[in-house]
């Protein structure tokens, strides 16, 4: 998902362009973003997102006399490439060399699947729960504002000055298979409520982390990575 917003920032970073032309370029360039995440660009690196393979993770802990270990594996995110870009508007274009935009990325559905194993050890208890999960999120919007200093100015370096990220999800459903129905129902309800709250209440720190570590640190400070997205695309889709 981050690749999409990064690419839009890059396209809009052209000095002496007008707002309408910037927005037109962004809508053309979105096709290049789709190509990048569908097939991947290993040299940047951008992995193939169709589907996106998410790394395995484990968590171990203890409470009183109980020890537990949770492993989540074979994690797949489907439908990430099936996005639309319904809105981008210039908020402030009084200074074309430092501009602010509202953006909106939309997914009708995202589907996460994978396996899990929970090992529980306590006095007189040694239990292992093994199963699969299927999480479906519907009607997801990522919206916000980004404010950037454009390149090409004397003694000025391109920089993403402000970036906000808000998420809204209409519904979340969770299906757990492989464990008894009572336990599955409790886990499903807990995850459904928790994921819905998370996807509708992104912390402000998420946008700030992306601005400093990903956009400015990983992308904008390495123009070759942005150019690789363009080079990967059929130039007729970008230039007109």
Would you mind describing this structure in some detail?
Helix content is 32%, strand content 41%. With 240 residues, it is α+β, with helices and mostly antiparallel strands. It has one domain (2-237): Bactericidal permeability-increasing protein, domain 1 (Super Roll), CATH 3.15.10. Strands 1, 2, 3, 4, 5, 6, 7 and 8 form an 8-stranded antiparallel sheet that branches. Helix 1 (2-11) packs antiparallel against helix 2. The mean pLDDT is 84.
Q: Helix content range of the residues, please?
A: 25-40%
Distance between the termini: 26 Å
CATH class, please?
Alpha Beta
Radius of gyration: 21 Å
Question: Which H/E pattern describes the elements?
Answer: HHEEEEEEEEHHH
Unreliable spans are none
Major beta sheet summary = 8 strands, antiparallel
Total of domains: 1
Number of H- or I-type helical stretches = 5
Query: What is the averaged pLDDT score?
Result: 84
Shape: elongated
CATH topology: Bactericidal permeability-increasing protein, domain 1
Question: Based on DSSP secondary structure assignment, what is the total number of beta strands?
Answer: 8
Q: What class do helices, strands and sheet pairing give?
A: alpha+beta
Strand content: 35-45%
CATH architecture: Super Roll
